[in-house]
Design brief:
about 5% strand; about 170 residues; mainly alpha; three-stranded antiparallel beta sheet; 3 strands; 7 helices; 2 domains
Length: about 170
């Protein structure tokens, strides 16, 4: 098995809205076919893009893998690169994936506790919505505590993503 077959079905962080908020199309991508596949394209500056989590991702596999956009075809996370180069053993990479997915689930849980339940949005947008909401200091202290927990949980998740996936 190659690194992609070993790691990617156990990860999905590049497709589920944790690692990226959107994917910009590149020259050569067939926007019409991608829209027909279920991706909702929108303008992002001069390019078209689709938001994450990807509508074609089932939690494990890409539903349009053979026809996925160029950006998706060319992206290789840091873990995958290190496994493919022989620098990192696949079992160590899988442990890192599991740890990062657990941390992302902690963040999701805190977001839900704080009223942000829209799983169709990328994690960064959900976090921004919660953190930009005004704080009512006369309200329950638990909300302030949860927001603090969320900030710490997101900080830890970002460290893991930077260390293992974005290098």
């Amino acid at each position: 098995m190659n690194g992609i077959e070993q790691l990617c079905p156990n990860c999905g962080l590049c497709c589920n809205g944790v690692l990226f908020a959107d994917v910009e199309l590149r020259p050569g991508d067939d926007a019409r076919r991608l829209e027909e596949s279920g991706l909702k394209l929108a303008r992002k500056g001069r390019r078209q893009a689709f938001a994450q989590p990807c509508a074609c991702f089932d939690g494990k596999f890409c539903g349009i893998y053979s026809g996925r956009p160029l950006r998706c075809r060319t992206f290789e996370c840091g873990l995958l690169q290190r496994v493919q180069s022989g620098e990192l053993a696949p079992d160590r990479a899988l442990k890192s994936i599991a740890q990062t997915r657990r941390q992302a689930e902690i963040v999701r849980g805190l977001l839900r506790q704080l009223g942000q339940n829209d799983e169709r949005l990328p994690m960064t947008k959900r976090y921004a919505a919660v953190m930009s909401a005004p704080i009512d200091l006369s309200d329950c202290q638990i909300i302030s505590e949860r927001r603090g927990e969320l900030m710490l949980a997101v900080d830890e998740l970002m460290r893991q993503l930077q260390r293992d996936f974005l290098k």
